[in-house]
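Build the 3D complex.
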Amino acid sequence: MAALGSPLQTFRGLLRELRHASGRPYRDTPAYQHIVATFRAHRVTSQKLCRAQQELHFQAATYLCLLRSVREHTALHQEYHGKGERSPEEVAGLVGFRLPQQPGGKG
Amino acid sequence: PPERKRFYQNVSISQGEGGFEINLDHRKLKTPQGKLFAVPSEALAIAVATEWDSQKDTIKFYTMHLTTLCNTALDNPTQRNKTQLIRAAVKFLETDTVCYRVEEPPALAELQKNEWDPVVAWAEKRYNVAIGSSTSILGPNIPASTKETFVSHLASYNMWALQGIEYVITQLKSLILSMGLIDRHITVEKAVLLSRLEEEYQIRRWGNVEWAHDYDLCELRARAAAGTLFVHLCSESSTVKHKLLQD
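Done.
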């Protein structure tokens, strides 16, 4: 089984991501309710896990990775791809250059 | 293409004859080909509903990986049957990322050996096959018996799960890393790191370019995570009996 870290951390991480993802109170969402119910029913937050619990933890960690990665990817997309046409100065800045300044004329 | 605005307030799930359905307000979600969107797993439906509910002003389809995977399973746009999917998946072994080694530069060759040898060894032990690795431009010489073993193993998965497996393999460019994920031997983060080993090596040497590297990294993680979750949810004993999964 993959090295996963603490189930409690995964559980908390999931709740955090759901809070970001949802517009409305995240406790109302099916996802929140399903995750809480699952963790409670299978006691996946305890330290020692049987095989079925480990499989469930892997699934939870995978879903956490999905939510987190989508959020980060979307943020990067907004930052770097979502802004439409950039000015020459902005484009130069993206790769660490500054445009030369010419006195009395176009820079 | 202009993004579609979010046109619905509430996202909910209901259970129909064909499986779990997604409701956007009073409308039932359909696939690109117009079929009713129905999935065999409740947990999968919940995760899809969450994707739709996460959209803010505009619908960013490129972030909705589970929805996309379900649409592919339902519509089967490439019209492939189980045998063809399995053949495509196993064919990747011939060009598997973790089997393709460089000789230069020595630091990268060493990194590949240290990071990839263990996962190849795991696969060989787990499946009782010979795989090996190669620096030849032709790649490793995979014995027919090895391919047969993987063909047999993949045949035990239903059509939906197979779509997911083939998707993960295509994303990671590795059958071995994908099986590592499906078998829960490695995490998504680790699988993606191993898939991108050469990129990570270059980044360490030449520096990170956030808008390119992190962007690609996050996207690959999202896709691999979605594919893996999809496979597991479609393979659970509680869902396997569902008629959507009867080939």
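The first strand of chain B starts at residue 4 and ends at 5.
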